[in-house]
Design brief:
Strand order of the largest sheet: 1-5-3-4-2
Shape: globular
Structural class: alpha/beta
Low-confidence stretches: 1-6
Number of helices: 14
Number of domains: 3
Helix content: 40-55%
Mean pLDDT: 88
Radius of gyration: 21 Å
Number of strands: 5
Order of helices and strands: HEHHHEEEHEHHHHHHHHH
Distance between the termini: 30 Å
Strand content: 5-15%
């Protein structure tokens, strides 16, 4: 029985080396967290090996590469929506987790770690994205940020990995921050809050609320955050990037709300803002689950080992493995 037991395989060793050499954006990440990422990736890769076609993802050549400017990030965000969202350049992108799995054919995992916000990698041509379990608005932005790293990687045959320790907490426009990180931030902002729809939504909100002040207030930004599914901080920074807020305005608003109300979410709830939309992050990518079930049924893998690889309880995997009635 193929049970992935015993000494580390060549794939284990390659994945471990890849993540130990990974670029870390932010503070150093614990060795245990790095090992956890590499193990999850290598075991998943082994599980998928028999079903994957190999080669570069079809979509990679569609994006601009080699130019990590804010303008390029905006253009690539538009290309992303054209390729994966039927060219919808306006709507909130609350289904991004499903798009990443179904359309990008990337392995997306939600992990429980306080060491980092997210991570991404290309491993032998297979794209991987990891998002730490957090507030859903933060997770959505983290996933979009990791997508920015994936689409900007010009050569999938050259495996790479990057670990983002704290994405939303990074200082705005920090000149010491790597250009690739600023690019991924800009891509995520443009992807989740396209400039045209942000402006149209803001205009509509102000009309409904009968706001006539020239300055944009925290409640308008709170509306934007909930409509587009992002955090208040991410929405405020996007407004600043679009010159809807003065430079430094996002940080000033965020700090004031934290002091006066405890958090932007509490402020929004007290003001009666509409509830946040649901954002579903699947526990396990369905291609990985399908491969695990197939190998269990074929007798190539024990249920316990398969559950450990995909990160589910044995009972959950057995439920997925149960025969269906027709």
């Amino acid at each position: 029985m193929l049970d992935f037991a015993g000494a580390p395989s060549a794939t284990d060793q390659q994945a471990d080396l890849l993540f130990r050499k990974a670029i870390v954006a932010g503070k150093p990440v614990s060795p245990a967290a790095v090992s956890s990422l590499s193990r999850r990736m290598s075991r998943s890769f082994e599980l998928l090996r028999s079903s994957r076609q190999g080669g570069a993802p079809w979509w990679l050549s569609e994006f601009e590469h080699g130019d990590e400017t804010l303008q390029s990030a905006e253009r690539n965000a538009s290309i992303f929506r054209k390729l994966f969202c039927n060219d919808d350049q306006l709507s909130p992108l609350l289904s991004l987790p499903k798009i990443v799995i179904d359309r990008m054919e990337a392995m997306l995992f939600v992990v429980r770690s306080q060491d980092f916000d997210g991570a991404s990698a290309f491993f032998d041509g297979v794209p991987f994205a990891f998002v730490s379990a957090r507030f859903r608005g933060r997770m959505l932005f983290t996933l979009a940020h990791e997508c920015g790293h994936l689409v900007s990687h010009h050569n999938p045959e050259d495996s790479f990995a990057i670990i983002d320790e704290a994405i939303e907490d990074a200082p705005v426009a920090d000149p010491k921050r790597a250009s690739s990180e600023r690019y991924a931030d800009a891509f995520a902002s443009a992807l989740l809050m396209p400039s045209m729809s942000t402006g149209l939504t803001l205009k509509k909100v102000r009309e409904i609320a009968k706001i006539t002040d020239n300055e944009i207030g925290d409640l308008e930004i709170g509306y934007l955050a909930r409509i587009f599914g992002v955090s208040f901080w991410a929405a405020a920074r996007r407004c600043e990037d679009l010159s809807l807020l003065p430079r430094g305005g996002a940080a000033a608003l965020n700090d004031r709300i934290a002091k006066e109300y405890g958090s932007a979410e509490k402020r929004g709830d007290e003001a009666g803002l509409p509830p946040r939309p649901e954002i579903d992050f699947p526990r396990v990518p369905w291609p990985l689950m399908a491969s695990a079930v197939e190998r269990v049924r074929a007798g190539e893998l024990s249920v316990g080992r398969a559950a450990a690889i995909v990160g589910l309880s044995i009972s959950d995997l057995m439920a997925a493995n149960a025969p269906t009635e027709h």
